[in-house]
């Protein structure tokens, strides 16, 4: 059998790009899922010891520490043992239960083994472990990386805030703007989506085979199991979905996927804008010694970081879209399709992380080419027409829009000299002519953008 490595992995996130997303292994690998399941099983048992269950009385803090060490000390040997057990059970969650039973034998808790996985179904484990994995991956990997990109973008925006440049609406020269402000547009868009992201609860399911705590209630009808479940999930940092079928309904997870997809769309927009600015020579790219831009054209320095980001954000969104549309749908009280699909939950996160790192790298390699930007501005004096006709409207000048339209749409470049001559021909006060002549592509940039504190 072929030993898996980065050279023979089928998926590029486990192969070519593994070094760029390997930190996600601790959250989305099969080994990680095993560890999180073990944690949930252990914490569930600990929570049971606090209930009025006679067999579990006297389970003191020293014993609790030993129990928590089962997942705190979880290592590759434990992973292998669970996989070995699964070869017999052909059931991954049951293999985890049997693994913990073995640990109970080793730690002297063998007489309490029947309270491992007590009254539960597999999805009580999965629908608690997986939301916990996603939550911690978001907090420890995704959001810090996104905020790092946003911070670097804002630093660039601040340093470029006074660089006036042509805007391009429909790909054509338009009223000038400032390069820094255009960068801030993306920063603010990301901020708004992060606010929405923070409103989405991290939810899990806990309630037995069909969500009603049937088995628990049959064994201990005097215990308020719904209250127990809410308290237990809250202790793990999750909110309990209630009522449910056998599985979590995934509506909030779908909302998370949709939100992440929107953020990725914003970053695709940014990637394409940067690609376009580079193609217009508004940015110079740092030349890396030894790098090759083309196998045939020695001069090429390609915007590969922005292209790589665009591609990986797109791949991530394809999976996020599928997850958000598929997971909330399950036949009757449960079918197995969610289980197979959720094994791919880490894939869009991996592509997103790869893309974010490419954006950060690309942003660090670009410098505004102010000579090109200035040249472009100086060759497009027609963009002052909007300002001139608006001031003339203020002065009640007859039909200024069409007067400027006739001047500027002659299929030739309009120069500063022609603009000035047009102003001189106007039947307006000298003070107005002076005001109009003071308008240039370089100062017609509108109100300076000021970031909110």
Plain-language structure description:
The protein is mostly helical and 453 residues long. The protein folds into three domains: 23-118, Fumarase/aspartase (N-terminal domain) (Fumarase C, Chain B, domain 1), CATH 1.10.275; 127-221 and 238-366, Fumarase C, Chain A, domain 2 (Up-down Bundle); 379-437, Fumarase/aspartase (C-terminal domain) (Ribonucleotide Reductase Protein R1, domain 1). The protein is 58% helix and 5% strand. It has 19 helices and six strands. The protein has helices at 18-21, 25-28, 30-48, 61-72, 76-89, 92-107, 122-159, 179-197, 214-219, 225-235, 251-279, 304-326, 337-342, 346-363, 370-378, 385-394, 400-408, 416-425, 430-437, and strands at 164-169, 172-178, 203-204, 239-240, 283-285, 366-368. A hairpin with a 2-residue loop joins β1 (164-169) and β2. α11 (251-279) packs antiparallel against α12 (304-326). The longest helix is centred in the N-terminal third of the chain and has 38 residues, at 122-159. The two termini are 59 Å apart. The model has no long low-confidence stretch (mean pLDDT 94).
């Amino acid at each position: 059998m072929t030993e898996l490595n980065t050279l023979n992995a089928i998926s590029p996130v486990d192969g070519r790009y593994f070094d760029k997303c390997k930190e996600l292994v601790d959250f989305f690998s099969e080994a990680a899922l095993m560890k999180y399941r073990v944690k949930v099983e252990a914490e569930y048992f600990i929570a049971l010891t606090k209930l009025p269950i006679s067999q579990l009385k006297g389970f003191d803090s020293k014993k609790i520490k030993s129990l928590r060490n089962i997942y705190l000390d979880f290592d590759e040997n434990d992973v292998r043992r669970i996989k070995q057990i699964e070869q017999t059970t052909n059931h991954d969650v049951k293999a985890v239960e049997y693994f913990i039973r073995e640990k109970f034998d080793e730690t002297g808790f063998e007489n309490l083994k029947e309270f491992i996985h007590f009254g539960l179904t597999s999805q009580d484990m999965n629908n608690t472990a997986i939301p916990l994995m996603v939550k911690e991956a978001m907090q420890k990997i995704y959001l810090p990386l996104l905020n790092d990109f946003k911070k670097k973008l804002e630093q660039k925006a601040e340093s470029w805030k006074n660089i006036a440049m042509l805007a391009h609406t429909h790909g054509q020269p338009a009223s000038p703007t400032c390069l820094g402000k255009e960068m801030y547009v993306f920063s603010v868009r990301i901020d708004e989506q992060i606010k929405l992201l923070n409103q989405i609860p991290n939810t899990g399911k806990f309630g037995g085979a069909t969500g009603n705590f049937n088995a628990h209630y049959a064994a201990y009808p005097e215990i308020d199991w719904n209250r127990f479940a809410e308290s237990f999930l809250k202790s793990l940092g999750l909110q309990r979905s209630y009522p449910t079928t056998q599985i979590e309904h995934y509506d909030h997870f779908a909302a998370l996927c949709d939100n992440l997809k929107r953020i990725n769309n914003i970053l695709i927009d940014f990637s394409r804008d940067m690609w376009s600015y580079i193609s217009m020579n508004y940015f110079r790219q740092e030349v890396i010694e030894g790098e090759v831009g083309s196998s045939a054209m020695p001069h090429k320095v390609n915007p590969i970081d922005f292209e790589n980001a665009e591609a990986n954000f797109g791949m991530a969104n394809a999976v996020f879209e599928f997850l958000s549309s598929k997971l909330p749908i399950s036949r009757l009280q449960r079918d197995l399709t969610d289980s197979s699909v959720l094994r791919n939950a880490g894939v869009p996160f991996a592509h997103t992380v790869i893309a974010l790192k490419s954006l950060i790298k690309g942003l660090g390699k670009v410098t505004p080419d102010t000579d090109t930007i200035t040249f472009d501005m100086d060759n497009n004096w027609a963009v002052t027409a909007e300002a001139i006709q608006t001031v003339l409207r203020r002065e009640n000048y007859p039909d200024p829009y069409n007067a400027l339209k006739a001047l500027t749409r002659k299929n030739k470049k309009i120069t500063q000299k022609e603009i000035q001559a047009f102003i001189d021909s106007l039947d307006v006060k000298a003070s107005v002519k002076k005001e109009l002549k003071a308008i240039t592509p370089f100062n017609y940039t509108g109100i300076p953008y000021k970031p909110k504190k």
